[in-house]
Amino acid sequence: MISNLHIQNIGIIDDISINLEDGLNILTGETGAGKTLIIDSLLLIAGGRFSKEMIRKGQESCFVEVCMFLPNHPEAIEGNIILSREIYVNGRNLCKINGKMVTVNELREFMKNIIDIHGQQDNQTILESSSHIDYLDNFSGNDIKQLLEQYQNEYSNYKQIISNLKENYGDEKEKQRKLDLLKYQVNEIDSANLKIGEEESLDIQRNRMLNAEKISLGLAEADVEIGENAIEAISKAVRAFEKIESFDKNYEMKLNDLKSIYYDLQELSRDVNNMKDDIEFDEEERQEVETRLDSIFSLKRKYGNSIEEIINYGDSIKEEIKRIENLETYINELNSKKEQSEIKLFELSQKMHKIRLEKAKILSERINNELQDLEMKNAKIEVKVEFDENRNFTLKGLDKVEFLISTNIGEDLKPLIKIASGGEMSRIMLAIKNVLADVDKVSVLIFDEIDTGISGKAASSVGTKMKEISRNHQVLCVTHLASIAAKGDYNYYISKNVIGEETKTSIKRLTEEETINEIARISSGNISKIALEHAKELRNA
Predict the structure, then answer these.
(1) CA-angle at 279, arms to 278 and 280, nearest 5°
(2) Contact, 318 vs 194, CB < 8 A?
(3) Which of 52, 364, 393, 448 could anchor a disulfide with 39, C-beta 3.0 to 4.6 Å?
(4) SS (H, E, C) 386-420
C-alpha cells in the first residue's frame, strides 16, 4: 500500500504530502482544485508519460515521491520501499528505487504489478476489441504466459524465414548483377591474401623506417656506451676483485657476479650491433610497406574496420554466392523450415486456444457476477474466442478475442462499442478491474472519476463494490458522488487557495464530522440540516 505521497511543483500543486491508509481512500473537492493532478502524479511515479506543461509555472522541475509498505516484496527494507521521480523542463528524468538510480522503463516495470490506475481513457481501451485478448491473457496468468513466450519466440523465427524467402534477388539479370558484384568482392579480398596481425606488424615496420635515422643514432650511442665504456669498466672491476678474492668468500661471490654481468654485457653488445645492421632499409622496401598498408586501408574502407572483419565479410559473401547459385535448393530449405515453424506455431496456438476457451468461460462468469452487484442485473457479458483455421498467424496466436454484451433480457450479444453507455462502461470496467486485480494481486487500485454517467442506486452499488475491493487492496478514488464518498474509510478534501499572486492546492484528511459535512456539500451543494441528515444516512447505509 501507499503510506505517503509527496508532490512538488505539478500544476497548481506547490508542495503537498499525503499520508494514506489501507482500505478505501476517497478524494473529493471542488472542480479545478487539483484532484486530477494527484492522479497525474501517481501516473508519473508509475512510469507514465510526462508533459512539460505539468511543471508548475516558474519552476525548473517537478518531483513525486511515494513510500510504500510492501512487507513481502524482495526490495522492501523493513517492509518499506521509497520511489521517487524528478523531471526537469528539458525532459531529463531522475528516477530512484530505495535511493538507487533506475531508468523510467525500470520504474514502470517495477510498478506495473503494484499500482493499477483507472481513468476515463481506460473506458476507451476496453471498447477496442484488439485489447480484449490482453485482458483475457492477464486473467489466464501463468497458464498461458509460458506458452505465449514459446509461441512468440517461434513467431519471430517464422517472420525471419518469411523475410528471407522474399529476398529472391529479383529476375535473372538482377541475380547475375548481384553475383558479379559479390564475386568481384571475394576476388579482391582473396587476392589481398590478408593475415590477422599483419597490419600491426607493418605499422611497426613503417614506424621504424620513418624514424631510421633517429634509431640508428640511438643504437650507435648505446653501442659505444655498452661496448667501450660499460664493458671496460666491468672488466677493470673484475681484475680488482681477482686480486682480493682469496681473502674472503664474499669477495669471491661478488667476483662471480661481476663476471656474469660482464658476459651478459658482451651478449648485449652483440645484439645492439646486429640491430644496427638491421636498421638499414632501401627506398624500395619502404615503398612496398606503404603500398601494402594503403591496400589494407582501402579494403577496410569497403569491407570492415579490421582485417578480421574483412576476412569474415569475405566468408559471408562466399556463403551468399552459394545461396544465389543454388537458389532453388536454398528456397526449398527455407520452405521446409517455414513448414516446420508453421506446425509448431499451430500446435502452440491450439494449446493457447484451449486455455483461452476455458478461462473465457470463467472470466465471463466472474464479470457477470460483478455486474449483478453493480446494478446491471439484466446485463450479460460473454468473452468470445474464435480460432482462425486459415492459419493467419499473429503475434498472439490464431485467436480473436472479443467481449460481447447484452444489457437487456432478450437482446442479442453485441460488441461493447455498439451498446454500452458511459455509465455502463464505468461499471463494466470496474467489474473487469476487480476480477483482474484479484488474479494479479495488485496492491493498489486507483480510480479517477469512475462515477461518470451513473447516479442513484447504481452509484451506491459502485461505492459498495469499491468497499468490498478495499478489503484486499488499497483503493484510492476521486469522486463527485455523495453515495461513493460515504463509503470511504478515510476521506480527504482537496482545495485551492490564492496566496499572494499564486494559486496553491492543499489537502486535508477529514474528521468524521468534516466527512459528514463534505458528503452533505456534494449531495446538495450546501450544508443544510436536511443535507446533513441525508449524509448521515448515506454514511451509515
Answers:
(1) 95
(2) no
(3) 448
(4) EECCCCCCECCECEEEEEEEECCCCCCCEEHHHHC
Residue 79 has, within 13 A of its CA and on its CB side, a CA count of 5
**Backbone φ, ψ for residue 421 (5° rounding):** -85, 175
| pTM of the full structure | 0.61
Separation of alpha carbons 51 and 43, rounded Å:
12
- Using alpha carbons only, what angle is made at residue 405 by residues 407 and 395, rounded to the nearest 5 degrees? 165
Strand 399-406 relative to strand 380-387: parallel, antiparallel, unpaired? antiparallel
Give 244's Cβ-side CA count (13 Å radius).
Answer: 10
pLDDT at 405: 87
Over pLDDT 90: what percentage of the chain? 34
Q: Which amino acid is at 122?
A: D
Confidence band, pLDDT 50/70/90 cuts, at residue 125: low
Grid cell for residue 263: 658476459
Q: State whether the Cα torsion 351-352-357-363 is positive or negative.
A: positive
Phi, psi of 380 (to 5 degrees): -145, 125
Domain with CATH 3.40.50.300 in the chain: 1-114+442-510
- List, for residues 285-336, the tens digit of each pLDDT value: 778 888 888 898 999 999 989 999 999 999 999 988 888 887 778 788 889 9
- The residues near 95 (Cβ < 8 Å, ≥ 6 apart) are 83, 84, 85, 86, 101, 102, 103, 104, 106, 107
Cα–Cα distance for residue pair 195/218, rounded to 1 Å: 32
The residue written with cell numbers 490506475 in the block is 117
The rounded distance, in Å, linking the Cα atoms of 340 and 347 is 11
Specify whether the CB–CB gap between 495 and 488 falls below 8 A: no
Mean pLDDT of the chain: 86
Superfamily covering domain 1-114+442-510: P-loop containing nucleotide triphosphate hydrolases (3.40.50.300)
Q: Between β-strands 490-499 and 24-29, what pairing exists: parallel, antiparallel or unpaired?
A: parallel
Average pLDDT over residues 229-239: 83
